[in-house]
Amino acid sequence: MKCKYCGHEIPDGVLYCDACGNEVRIVPDYNPLDDMLTEQVRFSIDEQNEGKEDPDYLAYDRTRVDVRSNTGGRTSGRSGATGRITGVSARTTRRTMNTRVTGDTSIRATGKTTVLRQTGRTGNTGRTGRTGQIADRTGGGKRSVSRKKKEQKMARLRRKRRIVILVLILCIAAIAGISYALYINSYTGIVRSGNNALKNQEYSKAESYFKRAIKKNKQRPEAYSGLAKTYLGQDEDDKAENVFLDAIDSQSGNADLYDACFQFYLDTDQTLKIPELFDDADDSVQEQLSEYDIDRPTYSLDDKKTYDDVQQVTLTAGKGMTIYYTTDGTDPTFDSDKYKEPIQLEEGENDVRAIAVNKKGIPSSTAQKVYKIVFPIEEAPAISPSTGQYESSQTIEIKVPDGYTAYYTMNGKTPTTSSKKYTGPIKMPEGETLFKAILVNSDGRSSGVTTRNYVLDLSSSKGNSDTSSNISGSNSDSSDISTSDSNTDGLGTDTTTGSRSNRVITGKGGASE
Questions:
Q1: Residues 250-262: tens digit of each pLDDT
Q2: Compositional bias (Low complexity) at which positions (predicted)?
């Protein structure tokens, strides 16, 4: 259809013209004038309404026309002229009326035409002003009816709006109720209920909620964390840790569970357990949790080599890392020595273990190297006097270097650390003595054995004193180890075994080394 104002084509179902904005008239305009005039006339000629005021719907403006007056319809004007009004007619759609009214005004109605006859005097023109009054009333009526229609339309719109809002509220409430019911029984809702119970220290209820959530979804870590906290709240630390370890045993490829377990260790100051668990994890898990893969410290010395002198080893780690170490064979902790300078290695075995810790407090696995430092061993000890036969009192002395301890025997047996410890000069016993001695360093390593064969005869004749003096004069200190003394009495020569000198002594009794 087309707009009657601008001629623009209007699609079906559209109530306003897109071009001019005027309202589309689907039905012809309603003109209430005809009905209002007919009702006024009918009201005027009804005898029962005589003396009553016009109803509100007949009062088109403030001017009221009284058609029921008995004045005879006379009016006076300035000129005093009289006139007669006939032929005032009005069309009506109502049924035929035939009524007679007393007075000077009469109305005859036949068919659809009503003729109103009035006699009386008029003003200068001889015509009444009734036509203008009716026109005024018609305009006021249109405005009143239009205003009432708008008010009724707005009331209907308000009612519809209230109904729509009420329906929307009911729908939203229903959706919210359904959503809440679904949420409270979902994994997230159950975990939240467990956390609320845990917050209120209702441990039994919290444990029930978390176990229920785990049954609902075994892969997600939140319920495991909540259950572990529940056990921690009851001082059951081992049980809390086993919550994660048992889950990881059955889900070795679940990186989320490993991450939750690592966080549990961080929260409970058990970070030293992280490297061990991380190293045992699958490669896929290690790739996903690379932030827990901390490089171990590196050492400046090779532990496959044996060193013959004291050494210093330097430890290094990544930027921002802190190194803790031990040298007593125990694993380092956060209470161990913090590395600040090279570590001094002493003689023997040095077991150096170290860890690197990043800024988050996550440690590396323990690095370990054992260094062996062996000092060169001293040769067999130097003993004086040398082998020989003596006729005066003598003392036996062993030269002991720093860092060594000397052990000796006087019965021909090879000395050990269980033998007598040398503390000072020893008085040579009378008769024949086979004296042996060794040196032992702080590391427990023994030197070679030095042997001396002594014969002390204090009852010998004075004539042998020169021989004894001659033998005694041949005593020496450490040079005796590498020299051989002759003895006319067949005592033999000094013997050193286990060192660069290896000489055999034969003397009385056939002793040999």
A1: 999 999 999 999 9
A2: 119-132, 459-501
